[in-house]
Structure formats: C-alpha cells, structure tokens
TrEMBL record:
Protein name: Uncharacterized protein
Highest taxon above the source species: Bacteria
Amino acid sequence: MNQITYKPICSVQVFHSYFENTLMRGLNFTPAGHFKEIIGQMGIVLKQTANGFQLFAPTDETVSSYLTQLNNTFGITAFDFDITVQDPLFYNYTDLPLDRMVSLSFSSADTQNETVGNQTILHPSLNEREDSNLLGKLHIAFDDILALATNDAPIPFVISFTVRATQWYYYFINTNSQPLDGLRIASDAGIQFSDPIDAVLPNGTKALLMTSNVLIPLSNYGKYRFDLLNNDKIIIKGLPTASPSQIGIDKSDGSQWATSSMYVYI
C-alpha cells in the first residue's frame, strides 16, 4: 500500500484578549459552499487545533500545483468555511455592537488585512446577521495563498477578537445600618470610581452606587483587584468583578455603552 503524503496548505489561529493566554477555544470551522462538496473527494484533511485549524492536501507536489489542479478539476478558487461558536457568552465579552446582532466575515482578499511577520491578521467585516446559528464566514482564496507562500511553507492566518469593556456599577447594600460616610474603592491598577450616591434597586432596596470613571475590559481571570474602604480602612478585600453573564446598556447624549452591575452586601 502506498503511503499518502500530506502537505500543509494553510492554518488559522484565533486569539481573544478576554482570555489570560489569549487563546480563543470553542470556535468551529466547517467547510462551506463548493469546498464542502469536494473536500471528501479530494481527500483534503481539516485538522482542528486548540484555537483554530490546519488544512492539509494529499499530495507530494507543491501547494501551487495542487491548488491549480483543484481549480482545473472542480473550478474552485477558494476555501470557504462557516464559523460557529460554542460559548453563548461570546457576544457579551466580545467588542461587538450593542444595538444589533451581527455576523462577521473574514477574507484573505480584504485590503485591510495586516501582515505581522509571516502572519496575516484577517480584518473582520460586520454584516447584518441572517443565520442565528452562524457567527460568520471565512474565505481563503487560492490566489492569496500563492501570493503569500514562501518556499511552499503553510500560510498562517490569524483571527483576533477584542474584549468588551464596560462601565462597572457597584451597588452596596448596608444590611447592618453601619455608618458608611467614607466609602471609596481602591484599585491596584489606579482605576478611579465615583463617590457613592444614593440609589434604589428595582425591588425597592436602598443602596449606595459607585461607578467606574472609565470602561474596564472584561476578563476570565483576576486581571484587576478592587478593595472597599471606609475611612481608609479595608472593609471588603477583593470585591466581586464583572461577569459577561450580566451586561447592561446605558445611554447619554446620543451615545451608549455597556455596563456591568455588581451587588455587594455589607
């Protein structure tokens, strides 16, 4: 039996600043369009990796020759993929529009792509979302693979997502009626919060509200630490941090931004 030789064509890695190591897991890339119809016939291997995939061709020829063969035989000029995401909170912790559902498209032919070293950073294009099951689409053209190829090495493409930043709202509920006339929030990152103001929760409970003066990026790890002080004495060490499971929207003067509310009992 002849041993099949597989040659790498290209790879895609996905990164997200929400995660400590920036590796974005949980995106699935599924062949779409004409590529979906012929991938099995041609024996092309799509290997999922921790944060993306690699594409391999069953050939001992050059990648250029193989892609030319694909084009001549099937009339295909690109590899197309549907992108789905497993984490339902992805849309909350990713910097996407707040007021509408969008899908993302990535193309190797986009003139706004950037080259960093030997990697091509794919520029995201926002589109109105038509299929609620799809995050977006990826289009990798043969011409771009050949143009970027160096010594027949696989072409590394990168998709990079930016984390959403929110204004943090801390609601402090004074359950013991203790005097709280010197409240402030201390941060190890120098992030400032407003002085406390009186607030009433939807259930009628009274609280003291303190809001961050800047938008703070969400994270899945303890990136920031906040302590609550009263008259310069720490009364709560390590306040709860924002979660992407609860995202609100605030508006003022025609602009809007995301908010994260935390409720703390003292």
